[in-house]
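Batch manifest line 378
LIGAND: flavin-adenine dinucleotide
JOB: complex structure
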Amino acid sequence: MHVARNAHEFVHRGVELVLIDPGKFWYSGLATGMLGGMYEPALNQIDAQRLIECAGGTFIADTAVGLDREKKLLCLASGATLRYALLSLNIGSEVALPRMNGQDHAALPAAFECGPRIWSVKPIANLWRLRQQLEQRFQPAPKTASPHQIVVAGGGATGCEIALNIDALARKCGARIRLSLISRSARLISRQPRGAAKALAACLRQRGIELVAGSALQKIDADRLLAGGQSYRFDVLVLATGLKPARVIADMNLAAARGGIDEESDERSGMKVEPTLRWTADSAIFGAGDCIDFAGRELPKLGVFGVRQAPVLLHNLLAALDGLPLQDYEPQKNYLAILNLGCGDGLATWGPFYWRGRASLWWKDRIDRRFLARYQNG
Ligand SMILES: Cc1cc2nc3c(=O)[nH]c(=O)nc-3n(C[C@H](O)[C@H](O)[C@H](O)COP(=O)(O)OP(=O)(O)OC[C@H]3O[C@@H](n4cnc5c(N)ncnc54)[C@H](O)[C@@H]3O)c2cc1C
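JOB STATUS: finished
ARTIFACT:
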C-alpha cells in the first residue's frame, strides 16, 4: 500500500507502477474487533485500485500464480502475463496447520478455507463472512436449544482475540455458546511477557471460555477434532494456528532452501531476502511482509514489521531504478502489540511491559484508524 500510494515517484521516472491484487485490501488490525461486532467491514478495507490510480499507477484485479524469471514474466490467474523490470512480492501469508498424525493436509485446504463449519483466520475477509454466519446462528432460539459449540485452535494473540471477540458477539446477540480455546503450548502468547499471558488466561476464564492449554491438534474431521487425546465436537471451528508464507512463493520456486514445507511443522518457508529486502538469488526481485524470510532470521508474522519495511522497500525500488545504493532494513527489537479483548479493554505489550485496560484499546483504535485513514483518503 505504501509503494502504491507513492506511485508518482515511479511515474516521474517514466516507469509504470502496476499493482496486482485480487480485490480490496483487508486490514488485520481491526479484524478481530470487526468479528466481535465493534467495527463494520467498510472501516477495515482499503480500496487498493483507487489508491494506486490516484497516485498515477495502474491496478490489475488478478492473482499472481507463476513466474518466468528468465523472461522476466509474471503469470496471472487470468492467463495473462506481465513483463517486469523489477518485481516486488508482498503477498502475505496463510494459516499454518500444525503437523497432525496421519492426516493428509493436502485434503484439507478446500474444506477449511472458509466455512461453513471450519474457518481459517486468513484471508481476513473470512472473518467478515464468519461474523455474518455467526450472527445468523446466534438468532434467538428456544431456551431448551443446546448452546452452540465453538472451538478456536491456536493460543497466540490471534487465537485469543478471536475467542474473546466471538464471545463478545454472542453476548451482543444474547446467544448461548460453549467456547473452547485449544493451545498447543502450555502458555498463551509465548512471545509476550509472562504476566500478560497470565492476564489473558484469567480474562478468558472470567468470560467462561474453556482454556485447553498444552494440547496439540491431532486430527480434524467435519464436526469433531482430536487434541491431546480428547475429542471435541464443534459447530464452528476457527483455525488460528500461526501463519506461514503464501503458498505461491513456493509455487514460484522462490522459497528458501528448506525445500518448501518443513516436515515437522508444516511451516512453509518464504523467499529469503537480503537486509535490503532484495531476493538473494535475483536482483530484480524484492519482497516484504509475511512472505519473506528476512536474511535467515525469523521475524514474527506481524503487520508492524511489514509497515516498517515499507519505506525501505520504496526507497530501494527507486534506488534500483536509479542505479543508487540500497538501504538496509533493521528490524525493531521491541514492538507494540495491543490485543482487543472484546469487552472494551485492550491488552498492550511492549518488550517486558504490559497493560490491560480501556486506555490500551483506545490507543489501538486510534493507531489503527490513523493508519487506515492515510490509505483510505488517498
Ligand atoms: C486475525 C488477525 C489479526 C492480526 N492482527 C494484527 C495486529 O493487530 N497487528 C499486527 O501487527 N499484525 C496483525 N496480524 C498479522 C498481520 O495480518 C500480517 O502480519 C500482515 O497482514 C502482513 O502483511 P503483508 O502485507 O505481508 O500481507 P497481507 O496483509 O496479507 O497482504 C497481502 C496482500 O496480497 C494479496 N495477495 C495474496 N496473494 C496474492 C497473489 N498471488 N497475487 C496477488 N496478490 C495477492 C492479498 O489479497 C493481500 O491484499 C494479524 C493477523 C490476523 C490473521
